[in-house]
Structures are given as C-alpha cells and as structure tokens.
Design brief:
- This protein is α/β, with parallel strands linked by helices.
- The chain has two domains: 1-24 and 370-462, Arc Repressor Mutant, subunit A (Orthogonal Bundle); 25-326, Alpha-Beta Horseshoe (pyruvate-formate lyase- activating enzyme).
- It contains 17 helices and 20 strands.
- Helix 5 links the parallel strand 6 and strand 7 (171-177).
- The protein is globular.
- The two termini are 24 Å apart.
- Bound molecules: iron/sulfur cluster (SF4).
C-alpha cells in the first residue's frame, strides 16, 4: 500500500468540514438515556454465549489533573489535592468488581488502556492497587497483552516509569503538545525539554514495547518556525508512534479555552503551513501516515496491521485489537459490547450514588441497527484501509451499493472529480490527496450527520 500523503491546500480548504472523529459510529451524540444497565447486562450475557466470545479490552478513566491546560476539551477534575483521588479509587474498584463478575471466566483480556485526565496523577501504590483489582476480577493474558497508559511527563520521573513497567504496562503515551516555552506558557502546560527527554529515555531503558508522543498544532504563539523545532525534538526522541492533533478553538464549548488569547493563535494560513511542514518532516524522517493525525514507524504494529487489513479504530484511536469487546470503567467512560455502546455517568456524585446501590454506572447508550453496523463498517474500512471493496460489501450485506447510497453518490462523484478518491463500481479508493480529508469522505456515509441542521458541536478537520 502506498502510505504517502499529498498536501493540497486548495482541496483542504474546500473540504475542511467540521465533523466527528469517528472513534465510534454512531457517535456519542446519538446515545439515548432509554438505554440502561439492564440492556448492558443482556448484551454482556449474549456476548458470553457467542461460539467464540470476543477478547476483552479494559479502559480505566482517571479524571484528575494537577493543573489545567487551557486548550483542554476533556472531561477532568483539576485539583492539587492528591487525596481527592482516594474515594474515587475505591469506587473504581467497586465498578471493576461489578463488571468483572458479568464476564465468563474464559474470556481473556488482551488489552488495557488507562486514560484521563492524568492517570499518573495517582500515586504509585494507588496505580498498583487498581492494577491488582483488574487482575483479581479479569483474566488478563500477560503474555500477549497490550497494556498502555497515558502519561503527563511533568508527573513522572525515571523511578515512576520503571514502576509502571514493573506493574505490567508495556505501552506508554506521553502528552507533550509542544516543546516551545512560549507556546507552553500560553497554554499553561510548562515542561522542560530535558525532563521530557529523560522520561522518554527511561521508557526506552525499561523496554516499553511502544512509545507514543502527542503533539498539537494550532496552539497560541505557534508559528511554522517554532513548530519545526518541536518536530526536530520529537524526531530526535524517536517515538514509535506520534499523534499530531489539530487544536480546535471552541471557547463557547470548552471553558478553559476562554483563557487562550485568540489574537495569539496562528492564522488559518499559518496552520496549514504548520500541517504541511509536519507531514513533510515526518515522512522524511521515515514515519508512515496511518490516518487521522497518527504516524508510526514502518515496523510498528499499527503499520503492519494497516498493511494486512486488520487495523481497527476505537475510542483510543487506531488499534490492532479489532475484535475486542471494550469494558470501560470510571466516569464518562464508553464501553462497546458487540453491536452496542454505553456510557458511564459524568460526575463522581452520580457514580457514587449508583455504586452505593451496587448498580452499574451506565446512564446512556445505543443498540446499533443493521444500517448503523453497515455504515460503521464502511467508515472503519475507509479510515483504516483507505479503500472500500464495494463488491464484497454488496455480497456480505445483500445490498446494491448504488441504490442504497443514492443520496451520497453525487458528493462521491464530486470528490472523485477533485481526485480525493477514485470511484468505480467495484471500489472506492482514497488517493494520496484525499488521505488528509478521510473524515470528510466518511461523513458522506453518516446518516445522523445528514439529518442534523448544524455541525457546530464538532471541530474542523484542519
Ligand atoms: S489536556 Fe490532559 S492534562 Fe491537560 S487539563 Fe486536559 S486532561 Fe488534564
């Protein structure tokens, strides 16, 4: 497969729609409060009865952060008081026990991911305690599992990194965003380059199997020149994977962003220049573009999975674990069991009140209809493989593509005329020019988005 991307300014400007990132389809906006914990239990029971039940992927949400980053759009609780986490850990352990007893004993866990917030807000013994709970209530395959944690470099040192490795984590993701001090100050996330490099080196010394760094472009005080230095630093650090996210300034939706000086944001032209530079530099440095902000070294599992058609997409982004059921625990966490999604309550008070009655903490969700599953399959294939085999799809689903998607065809033809895709009766293939715009292509298959009058709740692509 040709993984190159071509940067085409005109096309990017024309197709830069605001749209979902499709870590799920349908997106969380479609979840309904009619869905409850009884529905969830039924789905888990049904999944236990499958001839070959899916492996499990566990997600733990740790919502605490020490300081606020002004660009933040996440659900988090900002406090300097470490003791605030203690009651939450006890509740999380209760949820782990409740969830664990729903799944048949022979169902293996092959993936764990801790996200936030800041998982490393917790103390070492608290992280160990939660890891023990997971081992106690789930059957975790320590031989072949991928166990990842998101780390704020400001919260760790060499010793803590070693401790995480000893607990079984073998994948680590560092939130860096930018190495430039002015940019860091403008977003209230100040971290020294030496400290970042030291903990990345510690992860390497402790044989983490995969190291990821997150960067962000479009932040205040960034210019192509400053970001080039950050890219140089990241290339020197040589992570296995890199995510370069677009900062979407939406202060009306995300309160912390109101503290960002809008006048210091790069102009749309500068943002495009930063993006172009990023792509060119990372490709020159040998990174492969996976899709949707993600790059990886050619030897990385994600690249190999993309080449052999087994790449998948879920709430943590791209994944090699296509068939896992996702059991997500902690406030706001979203699970996926079979063909349904469910989300936990949003506040610690609600979480506590549910668990006090020994109840699961789900407050909304969705059971997918066949049409949802079909469209999810199309979006996943386009996002992961960069093509859609129309003939295979027609055979599998017993549909005639042209008839089923007649409302979408004129837009697809327009995209084909603009060389974002090639379109034949057999296949849709995303071109090198279209790869950055995969989200706009996928949006054509989103039934719910078409029904919506506005897409203001979503960020733009670039
Ligand atoms: S960006 Fe991450 S570390 Fe910063 S406030 Fe948001 S969740 Fe916390």
């Amino acid at each position: 497969m040709n993984n190159k991307i071509l940067f085409n300014k005109k096309l990017i400007q024309r197709y830069d729609y605001a749209g979902p990132r499709y870590t799920s389809y349908p997106t969380a906006k479609q979840f309904s409060t009619d869905y409850n914990d009884a529905d969830y239990k039924n789905w888990v029971e049904a999944s236990n009865e499958d001839p070959i039940p899916a492996e499990l992927s566990l997600y733990l949400h740790i919502p605490f952060c020490d300081t606020i980053c002004y660009y933040c759009g996440c659900s988090k609780i900002v406090t300097k008081d470490r003791s605030k986490a203690t009651p939450y850990i006890a509740l999380l352990q209760q949820e782990i026990a409740l969830q664990g007893q729903l799944f048949a004993n022979d169902r293996e866990t092959t993936q764990i991911h801790w996200g936030g917030g800041t998982p490393t807000f917790l103390k070492d013994d608290e992280i160990a305690e939660l890891m023990n709970s997971l081992h106690q209530h789930f059957h975790i395959n320590t031989e072949k599992g991928e166990f990842g944690i998101e780390v704020d470099p400001r919260t760790v040192n060499k010793k803590r990194i070693q401790h995480l490795r000893q607990l079984g984590f073998n994948r680590i993701s560092f939130g860096v965003q930018d190495f430039n001090t002015n940019v860091q100050q403008a977003v209230n996330r100040v971290q020294k380059t030496e400290q970042i490099m030291e903990v990345i080196q510690a992860a390497r010394d402790n044989q983490f199997e995969s190291i990821n760094i997150d960067l962000m472009y479009g932040l205040p005080e960034q210019t192509p020149e400053t970001f080039e230095h950050s890219l140089d630093a990241v290339i020197t650090a040589s992570p296995d994977r890199l995510a370069v996210y677009n900062y979407a300034h939406m202060p009306e939706m995300f309160k912390p962003q109101r503290r960002i000086n809008a006048a210091a944001l790069p102009s749309p032209q500068q943002k495009l220049a930063i993006l172009q530079l990023t792509i060119e530099k990372l490709q020159q440095a040998g990174y492969v573009y996976i899709g949707m902000d993600h790059f990886a070294k050619p030897t990385d599992d994600l690249v190999i999975a993309q080449q052999n058609g087994s790449l998948h997409r879920n709430f943590q982004g791209y994944s090699t674990h296509a068939n896992c059921d996702i059991v997500a625990m902690g406030i706001t966490a979203i699970s996926r069991i079979g063909d349904n999604y469910s989300q936990n309550v949003r506040t610690i008070d609600e979480y506590k009140s549910r668990l006090k009655d020994n109840r699961l903490t789900i407050f909304r969700g969705i059971e997918l209809e066949p049409d949802d599953v079909l469209r999810r399959e199309i979006i996943t294939q386009l996002m992961c493989n960069n093509f859609l085999d129309i003939k295979k799809l027609e055979q599998k689903w017993g549909i005639e593509f042209i008839g089923y998607f007649k409302d979408t065809l004129s837009k697809l033809h327009e995209m084909a005329d603009d060389e974002l895709i090639t379109l034949t009766p057999e296949i849709i293939r995303i071109t090198a020019k279209g790869r950055l715009l995969v989200r706009s292509i996928c949006m054509q298959f989103d039934r719910y988005l078409k029904a919506e009058k506005t897409q203001q709740a979503y960020s733009r692509i670039i």
